[in-house]
Amino acid sequence: MSKRIVTIVGARPQFIKAAAISREIKKYTDIEEIIIHTGQHFDKNMSDVFFDELEIPKPKYFLDIHSSSHSQMTGKMLAGIEDVLLQEKPDIVLVYGDTNSTLAGALASSKMHIPIAHVEAGLRSFNKKMPEEINRVLTDHVSNLLFCPTKQAVRNLKAEGITSGVYHVGDIMCDATVFANNYISKNLDRFVNQFDLKSGDFALMTIHRQESTNDEETFNELMSYAKKFSEKNNLKIFFPVHPRIKKLIQKYKEKNNFYFLDPLSYFETQYLLSKASFVLTDSGGLQKEAYFHRVPCITLRSETEWIETLESGWNRLWTVDSYNSRKPIIDYGLGYGAKSIVEILSNRL
User: Fold this and answer.
1) Which numeric CATH code is attached to 3-171+334-348?
2) Which of 235, 269, 290, 292 is the 20 to 30 Å CA partner of 13?
3) Residue range 56-108, pLDDT digits in tens
4) Domain coordinates of the chain in residue numbers?
5) For the segment 215-265, what is each residue's pLDDT rounded down to a tens digit?
6) What fold is seen in the domain 177-317?
7) Catalytic-labelled residue, pool 66, 208, 242, 293
8) DSSP collapsed to 3 states, the chain
């Protein structure tokens, strides 16, 4: 009889991470994976093509829960996920990262005494005002298997008294980047024709976090910083526009150094990232992906959970004027994190 894993995701970055593990799960004939999409972030780019390109199945369940307060969203997700878990009766629940979907999946499973596996466990920004930080901490403290991307994440858990079920497996975003690079190589003409650009003459910029966009003054400070940065370094700014900031960018549309783009697919983002001179972002994931492509990053936040990128000199906070001396390698693994995770899951099921 096959063992059953329920995977809970709610945002595009979580699908990218889950895809790496789903591709490994498919190699096991005795494991069945069922995917729940909470709907936390609706993304029009997540069509059938999105799942085909990532080589993963479409979600069996779509809860369509989004666009409400953190508490309302998490509460609705708890109820919706519980209904699915009662029906599917999984042997283990797999959650990713630090979204409301992560926390809701972990809490629902914990209350039903279903084992929980948390991918990207142990990360800490130590900023309790970030909703993601609360989600990370609470999820870790109810999880049974904690898959850490870094040794620092393992140390963070130990400092909180969590030592059982902790595994240092490397960063599965490294797995995802290897997969993306192979995909881009096979479809290179498509990307070259789509983007008329010269390598190195632009910076890739993204802003999407609520703390960056809810306050117009903060957003304007970030845009002013980016403008000065581009002028100082003689770089264009390629800026895919998140739906949250469409109104905020109107007064910048006539600025010659900003090139506003429609939202990009995952593979389009990876292609532009590989050609950029710099990355400016408030995204945690893009900080790492910049490193995987060996592109210097400036994080548009006052802290980051990926402290290795700061210590290694590949990343710096926008409030700091200089990088640390650059080291060639960060211990994020070699792209086999998903394989290690599924082997551990298989042995525990």
Assistant:
1) 3.40.50.2000
2) 235
3) 889 999 999 977 788 999 999 999 999 999 999 999 999 999 999 999 999 99
4) 3-171+334-348, 177-317
5) 889 999 999 999 999 999 999 999 998 877 888 888 887 667 899 998 898
6) Rossmann fold (3.40.50)
7) 208
8) CCEEEEEEECCHHHHHHHHHHHHHHCCCCCEEEEEEECCCCCCCCCCHHHHHHHCCCCCCEECCCCCCCHHHHHHHHHHHHHHHHHHHCCCEEEEECCCHHHHHHHHHHHHCCCCEEEECCCCCCCCCCCHHHHHHHHHHHHCCEEEECCHHHHHHHHHCCCCCCEEECCCHHHHHHHHHHHHHHHCHHHHHHHCCCCCCCEEEEECCCHHHHCCHHHHHHHHHHHHHHHHHHCCEEEEECCHHHCCCCHHHCCCCCEEEECCCCHHHHHHHHHHCCEEEECCHHHHHHHHHCCCCEEECCCCCCCHHHHHCCCEEECCCCCCCCCCCCCCCCCCCHHHHHHHHHHHHC
> What predicted TM-score, i.e. pTM, was given to this entire model?
0.91
